[in-house]
Specification:
Rossmann fold; 129 residues; five-stranded parallel sheet; 19% strand; single chain
Length: 129
């Protein structure tokens, strides 16, 4: 494994979307951890301390917003950038996402370029030409 390879954790309950986001990130050279529900993701986040988390809000168990609030409360996890990927696109939903501590909020469907730019932006990676 490349020591500089960054890890992206994807927490997304829709298998197709999770696979699509995973593939997008792998193409960009990221190590990917995929979780299909939020409750089991919490201990993995603490263990792995991924470089960035892509988080769906509407999850079958614990809301993505609750996961985000948990991350922001934990001192050793609080600095991990979290990009919300959600079908909820109303201004109120977006505001709630940022109030919970989102680094960025993207509304689905998310294009490859938008996702790549968002991840590079929160990780402060210079865009690759």
């Amino acid at each position: 494994m490349n020591p500089r390879q960054k890890t992206v954790m994807i927490i997304e309950d829709e298998a197709d979307a999770a696979e699509l986001f995973s593939e997008m990130m792998r193409i960009n050279g990221f190590r990917v951890i995929k979780m299909f529900s939020s409750a089991p993701a919490i201990p993995i986040i603490a263990q792995e301390k991924p470089d960035v988390i892509l988080l769906d809000v509407m999850m079958p168990d614990i809301s993505g917003l609750e996961v985000l609030r948990y991350i922001r409360r934990e001192p050793e996890l609080a600095s991990i950038p979290v990009i919300i990927l959600s079908a909820k696109s109303m201004p109120g939903d977006i505001k709630t996402g940022f109030e919970a501590g989102a680094s960025m909020y993207l509304t689905k469907p998310v294009g490859f370029q938008d996702l790549k730019q968002a991840v590079e932006q929160v990780l402060n990676i210079a865009p690759q030409e």
